[in-house]
Amino acid sequence: MVGFRHSFGWTYTALWVVRILFALYSTGYIHPDEHMQNAEITAADVLGYYTFRSWEWDPIFPLRAVIPVYMTTGLPFFIAQKVYSALSDQILRPATLFRLERLSFLCLSSLLDVSVALLVPPPKRSFALLLLSSSYVTHAFYIRPFSNSLESVIAALCLVFLNNIVELGPSDSHETAKSGRAALDWNLHALCILGAFGTSMRPTFFSFALPISFQALRYSYRAAGSISRTGRLLALPLCSGILTVLCFTVADALYYRGTPFHPVFPCLNFLRYNSSADNLAEHGLHPRWLHLLVNLPMLLSPSLWFLTVTNIYHSFKDSRYGPVGRTRTLDVTRESKSGVTETISQIIVLSLAILSAVPHQEPRFLCPIVLPAVVLVAILSQWPRKAFWVTWIVFNVVFATVFGVMHQGGVVPSLLYLNTRMTDNFSTSTHIVYWKTYMPPRRFLGIPQQDVQSGKVAVVDLAGAAESTLVNTLLSTRSETVYVVTPVAMLKNLPGHVASCFISQKRIFPHLDLDHVQESFEVGWYDGLTLGVYTVEQSCLASAT
Questions:
Q1: Using CA atoms, how far apart are residues 545 and 350, in angstroms rounded to an integer?
Q2: Please, which residues have CB within 8 angstroms of residue 514's CB and are 6 or more apart in sequence?
Q3: Residues facing residue 507 across a β-bridge
Q4: Cα–Cα distance between 459 and 489 in angstroms, integer?
Q5: What is the SS3 assignment for 25-82?
Q6: Mind listing the pLDDT tens digit for each residue in 105-159?
Q7: Helices and strands: H and E segment counts in the chain
Q8: 197: Cβ–Cβ under 8 A, 6 or more apart, which residues?
Q9: By the 8 A CB rule, do 498 and 537 touch?
């Protein structure tokens, strides 16, 4: 046992080192929302950087609440800028900005470890912590500023507070009952605040919170003993939840309308937008089974997915705790274990059912399920055999490398490189074109908004536009320096007389472009996994066309 504890401690510490390295240095780019729904907004508001404000932040019909964004990146940016300006009288550099926002979510991810440690009793606790800390979701998703990452943390904390409520149990003495009532009140307040926070941030959080709310109501009734007493017990916690919603409403009204007397409700706008099939079609429509049979196995791994499904089946089939009255004579530990596993099974099933009803389905929507699945498997399963760990390690190493490092991995380094080039040539007018890449998060260019407004710097995202659009864009600019950032494979597919006008400035490896796999294969593995930064000779391009 001592040897196992020693090896577990070293393994867990090593996995934390890996998580830190992924947070601070991995530049993989999973989805534009990791930038456009958070730090791209606060970098403009707090630091005055030029950024791209997506349609979700339209003041007429906003879909995003501002409090979570300012709590996770806005406040760290503000504090760091104050410290940085006091020490060096300069604004935060983009590279520092990148690591600061990652550091914020790295700290938030530690709450997931704490939640697992509180939810899973020994000796299974080490098993659960190993699963969580070695999952690629932890290294690739939770350390990025996705709203789904914050949603996962809130769902985990809600499970912890529910578990505290279940563990309180019935009290025999007056003093114990008094302290138990205070603990119950505190946990109910925390649940209501977190539930209101999560739902105001992402209405999909309701699908994760509903089973927790049901169980909290169930155990509150048991503690109170009657409906009227339950109402009195829940009155103040519900007021805390309502106050949280009011804080969101006032903050959003001030941000989008400039006055608290003109309320706006991004969470309701979110529901209205996503209830339209025409709106969802713009983002891609998927079959209803995609979450269950593809996205969830992609997040959990096929082996952990199988164990999760099996344990959910047995949890429902073998549940021995039905009516509340039958649990009074059971010891608190067994009741807590049953309450947690029963709730987790309900969370996974209900959230999958609700999220699968929406035809637009992305794997990251299921991120809040990962921790509940880990806890469920750790509590109900035996320590897995060697074959499980082999497949688990291979799966997570591959997916962590692909999504954490390689996928669109050159976009952020190219922006940091261009920031350095523009800093060195401050007086030069510059035109930057991104072609055949994910949307570039502009904050990493470190450009003040006034430089773009004055026309000194222009940034164009051509996405997947045709070659003719690229050429016409380049010919129309009058800037002194023109940069084009595109995969090397895309440049080699241009006609030779056009490609010869592009002068390579930097090659960034690795950059995995899954949207142009065939073209990447045709130019070889190294060039196919490389992003290029080029300057353009406009006179050459004009004569070539």
A1: 58
A2: 407
A3: 532
A4: 22
A5: HCCCCCCCHHHHCCHHHHHHHHHCECCCCCHHHCCCCCCCCCHHHHHHHHHHHHHHHH
A6: 999 999 999 999 999 998 899 999 999 999 999 999 999 999 999 999 999 999 9
A7: 28, 5
A8: 67, 68, 154, 244, 248
A9: no
